[in-house]
Specification:
- The chain is of the alpha/beta class.
- It contains five helices and seven strands; from the N terminus they run E-H-E-E-E-H-E-E-H-E-H-H.
- It is 28% helix and 23% strand.
- The protein has a five-stranded mixed β-sheet with strand order 4-1-5-7-6. Strands 2-3 form a two-stranded antiparallel ribbon.
Amino acid sequence: MKRTLIIGYGNVDRQDDGIAWHVLASLAGQLGRASEVESGFDFSGKNPELMFVLQLMPELAETVAQYERVCFVDAHTGSVPEEIHAERLIPEYQPSPFTHHLTAATLLAISHTLYGSDPQGLLLSVRGYEFGFDRSLSAATARLLPQAVTQLEQWLAQP
C-alpha cells in the first residue's frame, strides 16, 4: 500500500460534526489500533496513519507532503446532495467566506507549493443532521457510519 494518511477533522463535542472521528475510530478498531477522543490515534508509522484535528491548518502542509495518498474525512450539511460524498481532489486554492476555514484542496496546493509534493487526495464527507453539544452522533448520521468506513476501506484497497 502506498504511504497513506487519513486526516479526519471536525468537533467531536458537536454531534455529527465529529463524524470523522467516529469513522477513524471504527477503522482503527478494524486495524487493531487504539483510539480515544482525549489521546487521539496511534500515530506510530503504521500504514495508513490516522490523524484527527479540529480543523485543517496551513501547518499540516508539511505533514501532508510526506505521503503518497491523503484522505480527508469531514461532515457536510444538506448543501451536498449525497449522504456520503467522495471526490478526488485537485490541489488548488479555494477561497472561503470564513477566515478560519481551509479546504482540503487548498491544503494540498500549499503542500505542493512549499514542498513540491503531489499526493493523491480524496475528500470523503458524511452528511451531518444534528450539531448540538453532545459527543454522540444523531441516529441519521450514525446509520451512515458503516457505509463511510466501507468506502474508506475500498479506497485504501485501491493500488
